Amino acid sequence: MALRFLKMHGLGNDFVVIDARSTPVALTGAQVRAIGDRRTGVGFDQLILIEPGRDGADIAMRILNPDGSESGACGNATRCVASLVAAGLGKDALGIRTAAGLLHATVHPDGLVTVDMGPARLDWRDIPLAQAEDTLHLSAAAGPLADAVGVSMGNPHAVFFVADVAAVALETHGPVLEHHPLFPQRCNIEVAQILAPDHIRMRVWERGAGITRACGSGACAVLVAAARRGLTGRAATVTLDGGDLHIVWRDDGHVLMTGPVSMSFEGVLSPALLGAGHA
After folding, report:
1. Is the pTM of this model over 0.85?
2. CA–CA gap between residue 222 and residue 71 (Å, rounded)
């Protein structure tokens, strides 16, 4: 049967969102890849399944990458889902169950959405790394990129500080670092440039997705890494290719991310497309 979906984005980080609360949806990896093809499918940075809430949450969400793998966290997608579901429930605050844990989201009157992404995890086991290392100075390197900071936001991040993010060949070094032996679960790769004590410019290579215009969990990781290095305070505007997010690393370790969401269109996935995904 045909499957309805919404296309949403947060700062150009785009998602196919399927509401599976009333009717369960099970997609194979091949079907996810077929939907994610930007020429013959719909195309997305992540596919989101909204599922019934459990363990005290209003809803649950699953995050699938274009290669069919599953991700534990996606800040921009969480904002999109929170905005969508809150409007339907008539609420301005939600608990969202993810593979990374329970996330709390607040929808503001101006349409911006804040997500408490939970605590930043900083131990080498939390990233995780293949061996014990100081997460302030990781050994993984590629080309000019070296001396990264490791952060887990429910998914692994390696943040490299550079003089000019535009000069980095992220399409070349990103996949090498994503699959570096130091990262047994692969890794999201960020390059960050300090513009001011409260302003950071970043670009991102997302694990399983490649270069994207924005990554919410990546922006959180970048602020945490910069604050740990003493390059910024614990709050900053993070400018991504798609726009700005405001990130705060609270004293209790939780990281709050605030930014906009947008609805692009709605549609129906044809049985032919989903059937092609079985091939």
Report:
1. yes
2. 18
Domain made up of 3-109+262-276: CATH architecture: Roll (3.10)
Contact 44, 15 (CB under 8 A): yes
In whole angstroms, what is the distance from residue 211 CA to residue 170 CA?
A: 8
The tokens describing 191, both together, are 């390059």
CATH architecture, range 119-259: Roll (3.10)
CA 36/CA 58 separation, integer angstroms:
27
Give the number of C-alpha atoms closer than 13 A to the C-alpha of residue 84, restricted to the C-beta side: 29
Task: Give, rounded to a whole angstrom, the gap between the first and last alpha carbons of the chain.
Answer: 17
177: part of which helix (H) or strand (E)? helix 170-178
Render pLDDT for 203-222 as a digit per residue (tens, 0 to 9). 999 999 999 999 999 999 99
Q: What letter would DSSP give residue 27? A: -
Rounded distance between C-alpha atoms, residue 167 and residue 232, angstroms: 22
Please say whether the beta carbons of 14 and 264 come within 8 A.
yes
pLDDT for res 2: 80
| Both structure tokens of 59 | 């809803």
* Torsions phi, psi for 219 (to 5 deg): -65, -40
Q: What is the mean pLDDT of residues 238-249?
A: 97
Active site residues: 74, 215
